[in-house]
Amino acid sequence: MRGGRTDGAPERAAETEPASGPETEPEPDSEPGPESGPEPETEPEPDSELDPEPPHDLRLLLPALAAWAVLVAVLVGPRWVPPLVAVVSLVAALLLGLLAGRPSGRTGRRPSGWRQQLALSAAAIALVVGATSLHTAVARAGPVAGWAQDRAVTTARVLVTTEPRLIARADERDPLVVLEGRVVQASARGETTRPATPVVVMATAGQGWTDGAVAWRSVVEVSGRWGPGRPGERAVAVLVQRGPPTVVSPPPALLRGVDHVRASFREAVDPLPTDARGLVPGLVIGDSSLTPPDLTQAMRDTGMTHLSAVSGSNVAIVVGGVALLVVRAGLPRRWRLPVVLAGLVCFVLLCRPEPSVLRAGVMGAIALVALAGGRRRTSLPLLGGAVLVLLCLDPWLARSYGFALSTLATLGLVLWARPWGLAMAAVLPGWAGLAARAAAVPLAAQVICAPVIVLLQGDITTVAVLANLLAAPLVPPTTILGLLAAVLAPVSTVLGSAVAWAAAVPAWAIGRIARVCARAPLGSLEWWDGALGAWALAVLTVLLLVTGRRWLRLGRRRPWAAVALAAVVLASALPVPGLRGWPPPGWVVAGCDVGQGDAFVVRTAPGHALLVDTGPDPTAVRTCLHDLEVGTVDLLVLTHFHTDHVAGLPGVLGGTQVEQVLVTPVRDPPEVAAATLGLLAAEGIPVHQARVGDRWDVGAARATVLWPSATPPVAGSAANNASIVLDVDVGGTALLLTGDLEPESARQVRESTQGRDYDVLKVAHHGSAAQDERLVLGADPEVALIGVGADNDFGHPSPSALSLLSQAGAVVLRTDLHGDVAVVRDTRSRLVPHARE
């Protein structure tokens, strides 16, 4: 990359570089369309560094990035900070502007461009932070913010501004419905007001919230209690509902028509295979609710999440397709741009003009300009201007991971996609050169986005470039055919479904690419978590970019040294047994730190295990199994269907080979049970129902089912009392694994455990107070394992449970305090507890 000229006035730049300045750049003969490829025939192919590209113009991008960084900081500060920063920045911009425009007294020349950059940066900060101050003032106008601090009871009318979404809870309660809205009228404490306050509404699923009546842009009346919003978020207050909503007014007629199209499209894709049924609506209308959880996890692991929902590439494909149709139809030139813009507006309406879709549209347009080849020098100013405009319209995008990834990916395409592609094509023959130029696009995006991805995932994916390269040719047909199906579905569901089946073929292939690449060896490399890891990777990336050419020259001169260095890097990434601190040698059973949930692993052979529950987080359990070097799960036991025990299943399926599954006969909660069993059926994994007395021999382990009986007790939680209880013997170590068993069932289980001492007890229900004292004391465990999340809302583990375990003489290992835990049988056959703190 060559930086733009920032050390002189624009007039001097125009004098010295007349061919590259925007003022003298010739206008194209016609509007850019899809028929104008990324490499026009008239453009010479650069063969060496002697044929450089025009330098990039950084004068607007750098101020935009500075304003973005300042906005991230001020959003979480006190309310008086943004106005103060805006005023100080405006004054600084005026002073710096005066200094930048004053000629030097000695030479009579204008000062260097860094003063102009500082002035522009201060002006950008003043603009963005000033807009934020206005947004905040409007949002906090009225009494709602005060009511939220006092947690007042209210009746409010809310304009729904996002699609309602379901969030599963970690217990047997119904899922939550969460939506964002804007208060148009509210009453509390004898006062009625009509503000424009952005809020979040939280309600329990059902009760009129999930039947489709509460639609986007409808106005609903809700009764409930106010609570304060989180600092740095758009919502000033949170409204927790009490009772069902009342729809005061439905969406406008145009939006009701759009809802009809979306509903008809969902009906048309319903017969499609599971992966295609989720991906086609995601790519076409931004509806990812039908995407299977394991596919979502696989796409996250392979850096393909932008393909499971509407992104800039989809916008570019749709706009390009409309432009191509307009040209082929021979429409007069003066009508082409309005028709293309109308098509873009219709597509945005179909996808919902929420911030993520608008952001995708803007970034997709800029990426098209960058890759089209005609006006690449204007791409960075366009990107900087787009960032400033978007942050002025919606300041809370500054703290959005999606906005950061989209902006950085576009920046990577502008800076590196073309030069990297040409450089790789110059040293590769024929089709390999063409493939290299195609690979440069995802490579540029992945390199610049990697530090942000580390913040989200905690590791570095090594298959993202390959996966995106393989999937890229499949995205246009999926999007175009899916959009055609959406248009036809309201007219004829049968016809729409027929076209949707055509879109399902490339969509299914995208899903297979994600699943296969997610299971590739060394598909991801461990990295430091949090901000430290992100900054470390960012610094390393910059160093490699700056010194990359030198390393390449050294590698050509000393190839054996390059091979040795590559071997050292590869060896550091490979999990070499005996050189790692985890897992400890000789481990028998391990507990995974998955938050508030259970995931316990019994080692049955090298690389094989019996897994009991998966916890609530797919990434956490997948990482734990990877760290334990488990590649095959001989038997997966799902003790019951609460989400804190089964929601991590996609992570297990995405990271290991599961041979068979044992489940409880009680399907409670029914929705979670149906989704879990459907996911297993889609993978073709044999599922067995647990029966008392069943015995499973898996490797060195023998597991016997002690519970549930055919008639579990009706008192207490039905799901908890139907938990599978296992008596496991592995190499002479006796384990009692109790799920979330409650005292009603524990009293019957202890009849099966009388006279048997256990080395390890998995404490029931995360150490809740509901323990059966006689079962715990009768088991006489040496070590007690508790799977529990830090700072959980349930008070687990309870003081009474810990006291009971102390009375039993057990060493207690807790995942909230110790992280991943393990029990080792040492060379003297002694049990040794280990904690990975």
Main attributes of the structure:
OB fold (Dihydrolipoamide Acetyltransferase, E2P), 9-stranded mixed beta sheet, 7-stranded mixed beta sheet, 28 helices, ComEC_N, membrane, ComEC/Rec2-related protein
Question: What report would you give on this structure?
Answer:
It is a single chain. The strands form 4 sheets. Strands 11, 12, 13, 14, 15, 16, 17, 25 and 26 form a 9-stranded mixed beta sheet that branches. A 7-stranded mixed beta sheet has the order 18-19-20-21-22-23-24. The model is unreliable at 1-51 and 575-580 (pLDDT under 50). It is built from 28 helices and 26 strands. The chain folds into 5 domains: 10-139, no CATH class; 143-251, Nucleic acid-binding proteins (OB fold (Dihydrolipoamide Acetyltransferase, E2P)); 256-377 and 396-533, no CATH class; 534-573, no CATH class; 587-836, 4-Layer Sandwich (Metallo-beta-lactamase, Chain A). With 837 residues, it is an alpha/beta fold.
Topology diagram in text:
Layout: H1 10-16, H2 61-74, H3 81-101, H4 113-140, H5 144-150, E1 153-160, E2 165-167, E3 176-188, E4 191-193, E5 198-204, E6 219-228, E7 237-241, E8 246-249, H6 253-269, H7 274-285, H8 293-301, H9 312-328, H10 333-351, H11 355-372, H12 379-393, H13 401-427, H14 430-457, E9 459-461, H15 464-471, H16 475-488, H17 493-518, E10 524-526, H18 530-557, H19 559-573, E11 587-591, E12 600-605, E13 608-612, H20 618-627, E14 632-638, H21 643-646, H22 649-655, E15 657-658, E16 661-663, H23 670-683, E17 687-689, E18 695-698, E19 701-707, H24 718-721, E20 725-730, E21 733-737, H25 743-753, E22 760-762, H26 773-779, E23 783-786, H27 799-807, E24 811-814, H28 815-818, E25 820-825, E26 831-836
Parallel strand pairs: 5-7, 13-14, 14-15, 14-16, 16-17, 21-22, 22-23, 23-24
Antiparallel strand pairs: 1-3, 1-6, 2-3, 3-4, 3-5, 6-7, 6-8, 9-10, 11-12, 11-25, 12-13, 18-19, 19-20, 20-21, 25-26
Transmembrane segments: 60-78, 84-101, 307-327, 357-374, 380-398, 443-471, 483-510, 530-548, 560-579
Pfam families: Competence, Lactamase_B
Biased composition (Basic and acidic residues): 1-15
